[in-house]
Design a protein that fits this description.
mainly beta; 196 residues; globular; 54% strand; 5-stranded mixed β-sheet
Length: 196
C-alpha cells in the first residue's frame, strides 16, 4: 500500500466491466471499504447530450475532408441502451467514403442510412467519444450544409488547418487560432445549441 498510488476496484458482470471511481489510501490506512454500484441498463435516450461537437475541415482538390468528433455525455449513473432508438447523426446525402474512427460504446454497431449515421450500443456513464470522417465535394470551392441534432450541444467548434477554409453560419464566431501537434488551426465556435 502506497499513499501516493491511485487504486481502482472492478469486476465483470455479464461480461461487462464495472469499475469504481479512483481512490487512494490515506497515510497509515491499511484497508478501505468500497461499495461498487452496478449500473442499471435504461433505454431513455432523452438524458443524453453533447458536451462538445468538433468539426475539422481539411481542403482537398475538388472537395473537403470533414472529421466530426462528438463528446456524448451520459450524466446519469446508468448505462443507456440504444438498441430500440439508435443515435442518429446527420452527415449529408453527398458525403462519400464514410469511415468510423472511434466509437466508445459497449457492443457498438453503426450503419449509414442515406444522410444519417445510425449508432447503436450501450452508452456508459460519463463522456463517450464518437469520431468519424467523410469527404464532401466542393464544386467551385464552396460547400454548405444544414444539420439538426436531437440532443443539446454545449459547444460546437469548427477547426481548419492553416486557415485555408473559411466557416460561417448562424451564431458561429471566429476565435483566436489554436495549435495542435505544431499545426495552426483557424477556429470558430458556437455555444449552446438547442435540440431540433
Amino acid at each position: 500500500i502506497d499513499s501516493r498510488t491511485v487504486y481502482r476496484l472492478g469486476t465483470r458482470l455479464d461480461g461487462r466491466l464495472v469499475g469504481s471511481d479512483p481512490f487512494t489510501f490515506g497515510k497509515g490506512e491499511t484497508h478501505v471499504v468500497f461499495n461498487l454500484r452496478i449500473p442499471e441498463v435504461k433505454s431513455d435516450t432523452s438524458v443524453l447530450d453533447a458536451r462538445e461537437l468538433l468539426w475539422v475541415a481539411e481542403p482537398r482538390p475538388g472537395g473537403l475532408w470533414v472529421t466530426e468528433v462528438l463528446h456524448l455525455e451520459n450524466p446519469t449513473e446508468n448505462v443507456i441502451d440504444l438498441a430500440k432508438a439508435p443515435l442518429e447523426l446527420p452527415i449529408g446525402a453527398d458525403a462519400q467514403d464514410l469511415e468510423a474512427l472511434q466509437i466508445d460504446l459497449e457492443d457498438e454497431h453503426h450503419d449509414r442510412l442515406g444522410p444519417k449515421l445510425l449508432i447503436s450500443g450501450r452508452v456508459p456513464p460519463g463522456v463517450a467519444v464518437i469520431a468519424f470522417r467523410y469527404h464532401v465535394p466542393a464544386p467551385f470551392g464552396t460547400v454548405g450544409w444544414e444539420r439538426r441534432y436531437a440532443f443539446p450541444i454545449a459547444s460546437w467548434r469548427v477547426l481548419s488547418p492553416g486557415g485555408v477554409v473559411k466557416a460561417s453560419g448562424e451564431g458561429l464566431k471566429s476565435h483566436p487560432d489554436e495549435t495542435y501537434d505544431n499545426v495552426s488551426y483557424a477556429v470558430w465556435i458556437r455555444e449552446g445549441l438547442a435540440p431540433q
